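Appendix B, example 12.
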Amino acid sequence: MPPEHRRGLRLIDTHYGGDVSRIVVGGVTHVPGDTVLAKREWLQRDGDALRRLLLGSPYGEPSMCANVIVDTTLEHAEAGYVIMEAMGYPHFSGSNSICVTTALLESGHIPFGPPGHQTVHLEAPAGLIRAEVEHDGRHVHAVTLACDPSWVVERGRTAELPEFGTVTYDVVWSGCFYAVVDAEAHGFALTEAERHVLRDFGLELCLVAGPELDLVHPDFGDTGDLSFVNFSGPVLDGDDGPEARTATYVHPGVVCRCPTGTGTAARLALLVEDGQMDVGDRLTTVSPTGSRMGGRVDDRITVSGHPATAASVTGQAFTLGITDLVINLDDDLSEAEGIWDLLAVLDPDLT
């Protein structure tokens, strides 16, 4: 194949709890936009072929996530990143942010400090993210993130689902808008065997409830259709304190293997509003596959008039490998129509 018929992307593949996050560190040198939020908006509007390439056949699959490393204009940030998922472009993701932090440190894109504790600042579309990292100088062992503030938007909404009947849910912002469902009330124990049923339930709820919701963030504006459902199990006494089973559905058709940071933060916001938790309290969330994430209520704040929760989450991601992805102009199997013209914009030095 002639060289002019192919392009390359360099990826660091990582995972949290079995959810693969692909970190794009090469082949994208320029994304238009003055801020990471603006770069997100450009990719969503004009550059979605990249997301479809990385998360579609034959290069990937929809349960994966991708994060494009971009320049940051924030004084203290060491890198920026735009998050891509099956649903599109969330403003924040806890598990993806942990994967990005891990990948950039372990690959040397951000230098390790002396073994022990290190603070890393990144810019997500939601703004500056502080990551507190524990490492041995070669590998990251834990990352604690300060999450995007979360607050309860509405309690006790109902929807009539064709296969599952009447569903009562709460709406919470925690970096994205969630419909939070009481899993026990619908007979779910949140085990791995239930993941296909949780997928069908989440799909129906997004399709039925989404058109009835006005999901507008005070800073980000209209965030689009409902794309996230959190199934919340009861809070029980665990070996390390309170814990709760959880499952996150991402539209269309993905049930996450890890508990997710935004799902954990949404649960903490509800528990704080219910008076069951307060500043300093911790909760471990456990996914249907047994993956765990620590959550902590750090503060009670106000955001645009909303009583809100400042929370942090803690977890560990693992590097799977470094991939030099070859994109072939002659490959008819790619679902990413327009990718060739897009890559000429994203890496103009190769044109």
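The first helix runs from residue 36 to 46. The domain at 151-315 is CATH 3.10.310.10 (Diaminopimelate Epimerase; Chain A, domain 1).
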